Amino acid sequence: VMTYGELAVGTDVSGRAWFGIQAEPHVSMKLKQVFPRVSPQFGVIRIAITEDTARDLEWFMERYPLRGSDEAMMLVQHHARAHDRRRARTAEALLGKSDAKPARRMALPARDYQEVAAALAHASGALLLADDIGTGKTCSAIRMLASDGALPAVVVVMTHLQRQWAAELVRFIPDLRVHIAKLGTAYSLTAGQRGKGQPPPDVVVMNYHKVAGWAEALAGW
């Protein structure tokens, strides 16, 4: 099989993994059309390894085969198949075929379209929800938090909405442990009064300004 370049894998100084491609000039030009954000370094095009980039790269190599190590080819296939599975789950969610039940008891049931939004967020791992005002985007988000594996979570809102969100969380899921971050720097979430330990919260609510001070502490949580 004719090949048009080399495929390798590597990591940058921060530990992020990437695909490295060194290809014939006309193939590199085509590759940069598929991945417009990349820029070659010393003749090597580096592409961050994600499910989306792996699937696009697999599609690209059907037209322009590349030589690579077994590790590189297996990584492309592994992440590309994960992309396909996520896409299938997303399609099922959009069609309302997801039968996922909330892991937490909902005191107030979500509407059908809110169930679809929650299932879509859970299936795809991300969701920008642009429903109209008054249609219950907050409930859609809380229904997603009730899904299996969604907790613990951080809710980031504007300052004047912190207490409202905390109240809504408990209204929809009464047994939820909710904590509003009081300071801009992290502190213990399990230290109760008089030094006694307490269970960590299920959800931490904070405004945008506190995120930087809490990011490192919450990263492993």
What does this structure look like?
With 221 residues, the chain is α/β, with parallel strands linked by helices. The chain has helices at 25-34, 51-63, 70-94, 112-124, 137-145, 162-172, 211-219; strands spanning 5-11, 17-23, 45-48, 67-68, 153-157, 178-180, 203-207. The protein has a four-stranded mixed β-sheet with strand order 3-2-1-4. It has a three-stranded parallel β-sheet with strand order 5-7-6, covered by helices on one side. Strand 1 (5-11) and strand 2 (17-23) form a beta hairpin. Helix 3 (70-94) packs antiparallel against helix 4 (112-124). The model has no long low-confidence stretch (mean pLDDT 90).
Protein traits:
about 15% strand; alpha/beta; 4-stranded mixed sheet; 7 helices
Task: Provide the fold topology.
Blueprint: E1 5-11, E2 17-23, H1 25-34, E3 45-48, H2 51-63, E4 67-68, H3 70-94, H4 112-124, H5 137-145, E5 153-157, H6 162-172, E6 178-180, E7 203-207, H7 211-219
Parallel strand pairs: 1-4, 5-7, 6-7
Antiparallel strand pairs: 1-2, 2-3
Helix pairs in contact: 2-3, 3-4, 4-5, 5-6
Q: Strand share of the residues?
A: 5-15%
- Give the strand order of the largest sheet, numbering strands 1, 2, ... along the chain: 3-2-1-4
* Gross geometry: elongated
* Biggest sheet record: 4 strands, mixed
Average pLDDT figure: 90
Helix content: 40-55%
Class of secondary structure makeup? alpha/beta
Unreliable sequence segments: none
- Helix and strand element order: EEHEHEHHHEHEEH
Number of helices: 7
- Gap between N and C termini, in Å? 48 Å
Using DSSP, what is the number of strands?
7
Q: Give the radius of gyration.
A: 22 Å
